[in-house]
């Protein structure tokens, strides 16, 4: 007797991307970065046979039961895999952060600078580093 994990039910975001050739239309229109195409491609393949299948058998040799489980993509852009990774990251950060009311800061950029960073994405690393340095400077100045 062979059994799979049940009938495959596409995840809602997958249905959104695949309905009416939506993702194909985005690809045909162009303008997407390679990393965006890779992330969506992984998400669409997640939980399908495209990424491979693991076979699980009973410990008893005489037992005919087999269960097939499709592999996941592990992408942080995938609603399923990314959620698991995000939850793990949050748990790790909560153990590292002090027990206080506020543990979230937002550093914003004026919209006039968005085009600069859109064509020079690597500059965002420097902006984030500078934001952290300024925050640490302010904390040291207050004896924190």
UniProtKB/TrEMBL annotation:
Query: Pfam families in the record, alphabetically?
Result: Zn_Tnp_IS91
Domain called Transposase zinc-binding: residue spans: 19-109
UniProt superkingdom = Bacteria
Instruction: Please state what the protein is called.
Output: IS91 family transposase
């Amino acid at each position: 007797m062979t059994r799979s994990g049940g009938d495959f039910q596409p995840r809602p975001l997958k249905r959104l991307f695949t309905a009416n050739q939506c993702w194909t239309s985005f690809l045909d229109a162009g303008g997407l970065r390679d990393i965006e195409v890779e992330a969506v491609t992984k998400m669409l393949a997640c939980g399908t046979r495209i990424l491979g299948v693991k076979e699980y058998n009973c410990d008893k040799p005489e037992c005919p039961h087999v269960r097939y489980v499709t592999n996941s993509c592990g992408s942080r852009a995938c609603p399923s895999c990314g959620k698991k990774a995000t939850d793990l990251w949050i748990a790790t950060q909560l153990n590292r952060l002090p027990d206080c009311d506020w543990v979230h800061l937002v550093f914003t950029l004026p919209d006039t600078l968005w085009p600069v960073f859109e064509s020079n994405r690597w500059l965002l690393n420097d902006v984030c580093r500078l934001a952290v340095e300024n925050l640490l400077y302010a904390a040291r100045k207050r004896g924190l």
